[in-house]
Each structure stands twice: as structure tokens, then as C-alpha cells.
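Kindly review this protein for my students:
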Amino acid sequence: MREIDGQAGERVIASLQEIAPDLGRYVIEYAFGDMYSRDTLDARQRQLVTISSLTTQGGCEAQLHVHLNASLNVGLTPAEIVEALMHCSPYTGFPKVLNAIAVAKQVFDERGLLPVEQS
């Protein structure tokens, strides 16, 4: 989890300690211990799936913020992230993608990555 999510992941787990410490343990054991440790997809591919899934669900902006940072941590470029989010628009609709793009803009701005160079 530290390798992929960094401090953002640690903050998520810490935020659960007072109210639902078992949920934090499940995130570490299941999501990272079981799912992220599988061999078929690499970390970049996993993050593309994750940000696409969070985008299409909608209402997951806090989790999307963490995973957009994780996507950058594992080597995805801002342009690749924007392209993946845009690719969701015909399948999930513009409102959810616009919300995801707004989160991406915030993350990129926080990391000094704006403007995003398009290919």
C-alpha cells in the first residue's frame, strides 16, 4: 500500500482507527494483500482499472483523489490519466467523467502538473 498509495493510503487507514479499524485492516489485507499482489496486471494497469471503476461508479471522489495520486506514483502520466477518464464518457456519461476530471485537475494542481500536455 505504501508503495502505491504513499501517505494518502496511510491517512485513509489512520482515519479508520477510531471508528472502524477492521475496515482498515480489510483494505490492507484484501485489496493490497490479495488483489494488488496478483501477477497478471502490473501496477499501472491496476490503477487504470481502479480509476475507471471509481469514475463509472460516481460518488467516489475521495477515493478517486487517492488513486489518481497512486496512478502518478506508479508512473502513469497526467495525459494518460485524462485519456483514460475521457474514455469512460461513452460508457458512463459526461457528468461522472466531468466530476472525475475535476478531481484530476485538483490532484495535478496539487502536484504542480498543470497544464496537462496532450498527445
